[in-house]
Amino acid sequence: MKLADEAALRRRLHEEIDLAEVGPAPVEAVFRRYRTFRTRQWAAITSGVALIAAAVGVLAVRAPGWPGGAPPGTSGRPSPGTTLHTSNTPAQGDVFASGTVNGRMWRLAAVNLADSGYRCLPGVVVNGQSGDLLQPGFLPGLALGNVAFLAASPGRPGIGFAFLQLRPGVSRVTADLGDGTRLDLRPVTVTVCGQRFRLAGFEYPRQGVTRITARSAQGHRIGYTPLADYFNPASSFQDGTWINVQGAAGNVASGEIGSGSIGRTPWGMKVTLGPDGECFGSQLGPAGAATGASLCQPVGAPSKGASLAPIPFPMPAGAVIWIWYPGTVNARTAYLLAHLSNGTTRRLVPAVVGGRKYFVLAIAEGVKLTRLTLYDTHRHVLADITSFPPVK
Amino acid sequence: MNGKDREQFREFMVSRWPELVRLGYALTGDRWLAEDLAQTALAGACTAWWRVSQADDPDAYVRKILINASNRRFRRRRPADDARRLPEAPLDDLAALADQRSDLMAAALRALPPRQRAVIVLRYWADLSDAQVAALLGCSEGTVRSQAWRALAKLRVSAALVDGEVPVMMRGGAR
């Protein structure tokens, strides 16, 4: 019988859609989006119409009373949620802001976050790591552009970094900090991946940032973005993760990085590169089933070896915990061998998403990953990893 | 948003989440995208919660945001989004066959233009009246009926919607 009648179609749709399992509501994620929406609305209301062509400055200038202008340096610290197991060289690029705080140097640079030989992925890194993607466009109605924050980098409690991706016409920006300081910033034009971006950056104290104001060349205010909500104690602003307040154009790339089955239950994992950073989302069950655990983290510099982020995933019955190990690998990696504590070995083939090479391994809790070896197409060992991050 | 509103919205979110995800899935055929659309709709509702909470039908408000977000996404869609994965191995059990049928249903829906797909989902899955569908889609009831008629005509000729045995050869010639 064909679905010639409407009742049959109604029945088939309910059969297919109603039976799909859905996970719990991601309450905090929704509230975070809400705060982003609200900030956009405020900015849209206050933004002016007249945008005047801007002269381009050379450096992000610190306001009096703040140390600045120090030579760039690197810290080499890993991003939260990622453990680097081989010597990932900090990404080099065009430095558009730098300074020193508490005797330690920092720098913000625009870089290509993709592996060499693949599509270019423009982003910004702090001291060569903890990357955030540059937006491919701007939301309409906003005078400023995108504002991105990275709170409390590991090893630097109470300090955060921010960068602004500015629209044409914005010649100056003032940033009001939570401790009462006002920074006067001028955008720097940098070219990465063949595209020109107008950027400014600064570091901010524990009290956060209360407002960013965009100004024309004549100093007239053409829009502002209130930010105090992001830095109040009730905010879900997560330390160690970039937040793009006016991230404009959605995700830059997305794709499946691995799939398999646990018994007869299929699973898959997807990575999405966008305003939330590098987000891994796991899926257990057939199409339409609940999405499982997920993790968002800054976009790391291209791996020289491999980086991993373990994600525990409780099975529906709650009886077994599976651990997903998604991560990136060296661009030359053709395949990986994962050696497990139960004596088995798994062969994994990485997938390229957004110009970056990803892999994922799923193992049951209790079984340990003991060794991960990366091979190139000639079966030469590129990296051999024997220590792994603890599962939180 | 004060604490009371926040708690009220939280309850609303938790209770509506499954239905919104399923609506998103029905519209897009993509489980990840469905959750993204549901989050977008709820965040939009949160932004105007004072208005949504006093509306006669708060669900309609949230559905409308989700449908609009889905349509915007369709306009931005790249060809790669439509790439379908074919089974790599022969399907040799009933569970796999059921999954295959489910995929075919999703594929048949996805093959419809977005407005026709929305009409079918809202009319036959969400069980809304033509007037409600028209209000959600911003068109007349006559347009809803004509879109439904066209969509049904396409679904009738789709081999994917044959009840009973599924033509396995259609999916990559595995058997």
What characteristics describe this protein?
heterodimer, A: 392 residues, mainly beta, 6-stranded antiparallel β-sheet, 5-stranded antiparallel β-sheet, 2 helices, globular, B: 175 residues, mainly alpha, 8 helices, 69% helix, disordered C terminus
Poorly predicted runs of chain A are 40-89
Main sheet makeup of chain B: none
Give, in order, the helices and strands of chain A: HHEEEEEEEEEEEEEEEEEEEEEEEEEEE
Instruction: Report the C-alpha radius of gyration of chain A, rounded.
Output: 23 Å
| Biggest sheet descriptor of chain A | 6 strands, antiparallel
Beta-strand share of residues of chain B? under 5%
| Largest inter-chain contact set | A-B, 41 and 41 residues
Summing up helix and strand content along with how strands pair, one would put the structural category of chain A as: mainly beta
Cα-atom Rg of chain B, whole angstroms?
18 Å
Q: Output the number of helix runs of chain A.
A: 2
Helix content of chain A: under 10%
Shape of chain A: globular
Count, helices of chain B: 8
Q: List how many beta strands of chain A DSSP finds.
A: 27
Q: What oligomerization state is this entry in?
A: heterodimer
Q: Ranges of chain B with pLDDT <50 over ≥5 residues?
A: 76-100, 162-175
